[in-house]
Amino acid sequence: MIASTPVARWSWGEPGHRTDLVGEAVRRFVLALRALDRHRLGTPCLGRVAVSVPQPGRRNFLVRSDFRVGALAVVDSGAPESLTAQIKAALAPGEIGTVELFASCDGVVETGRGARAAEGLFTLGAEASEGFFNVGLTTHSDAWLPFDLRGRGQDAVFAANGPRLASALAEISAALGLEVDPDDATWFAVPTGRGAENRFEDADGSPSDVWGRFEIPYRNGNSNRTPRDAT
Description:
eight-stranded antiparallel beta sheet, 4 helices, 28% helix, 31% strand, elongated
């Protein structure tokens, strides 16, 4: 199931320093994307990454556009340099405040009955400023949980997909040289250093039907947006 809002989030951050901020943001983004891609979890939708470069104070943007990253870019050793050059060529004159990259990523989910392509499994972002460098990963899928978002057991799905996410998180940490920082609990799950855990808030100790409790009311309150329900 694909939720409208995040199921779990993780980040990798450290203090920034004076450097080539465009190159640093791209380098970190591509390192994380490669780790996801090795586990068939990180193909940017339409092969594009959104890039924003606001000036200090975010009054104006030096660039705010999508850039194409070909299907083979994540395994191409020249990918960071190519994307960095594209972004720099598009920059308007001015002082860089922050460099931000973002992509919604499709991937493959193992269902227990075979692999299935799934849209919007993750969103990946990277941000570089003189004060802080950060990579953020968010999932909208419950494929990494022992129980789906309706509280139904999914042993085969979890056994096939949970270790893939754990490996991807570990590989991103190794590539960046930083420990993963699980974010706070969401409506749907509790992030951990190796993936995420279901919420158990029902009186009898069973996993919560967070889909009915949160997702459906959220969608009903946002009827103008198009929901994605890949069950």
